[in-house]
Amino acid sequence: MFEVTERGLILCYYYGCLNWETILDKLAARQKLPRLVIRTFLDEYLTYFKEEALIDDLLVMAFYAIYRGMPVPSELISAVEKRLLKPLISH
Asked: What residues contact residue 64 under an 8 Å CB cut-off, 6+ apart?
């Protein structure tokens, strides 16, 4: 068996090359977030940014969305603060 990156999962979600429920299950398990939060964010993010969407790890995408002024679910904002920003600030 092989491991897929978050970026790869999100690209599969975007292009529909894998069942979206499977993708959401994997992302939810990795990020410890509800599937609905992830699905809502991805759908809104991909619609909001269209061809200019930055595709990366979910938290990087959420940070980019916050930076660009897109509304982001509070659960995702908390995850960005805890797992992305806090480690950067503490160094």
From this structure: 54, 56
Q: Can you tell me the distance from the alpha carbon of 29 to that of 45, in angstroms, rounded to the nearest whole number?
A: 20
Q: Which of 22, 72, 19 has the alpha carbon at shortest distance from 58?
A: 72
Q: What is the pLDDT of residues 26-45, one digit of tens each?
A: 999 999 999 999 999 999 99
User: How big is the chain by its Cα radius of gyration, in Å?
Assistant: 13
Residue reference for tokens 């991805």: 42
Q: Residue length, the chain?
A: 91
pLDDT at 91: 62
Phi, psi angle pair for 39, to nearest 5° = -65, -45
Using an 8 Å Cβ cutoff, are 42 and 13 in contact? yes
